[in-house]
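REVIEWER CHECKLIST
Item 1: Sequence provided? yes
Item 2: Single chain? yes
Item 3: Sequence as submitted:
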Amino acid sequence: MATARLRIFPRPDQDDRDESPSPSIAIRLNDLYPLLAQAHRDNFTWLDDFADDTVLVSPDLYEVVRAFANYRPSA
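Item 4: Structure as written out by the authors:
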C-alpha cells in the first residue's frame, strides 16, 4: 500500500497576504450543486467549515435567488 505524502508550505508573511482573498477557481454551478446538496443531505461536517464563506454569483443568478427567496406559493 502506498503511503500518503504530505507537503508542508511556509505560512506567508502578513505583508504578502491580501486582506480579502479573491476566488481563484471557477466551477460551474451544475458541477458544484450536486456535491453540496449531497454533503448537506448527509450532514458532512466539513460543509459547516465553509458556512460563513462568501460566494460570488452573477447578477442574474442573484436576482433569481432573491426572487425565489421571496416567493410564497398561493394556497
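Item 5: Key structural point noted by reviewer: The chain has a mean pLDDT of 81.
Item 6: Recommendation: ____
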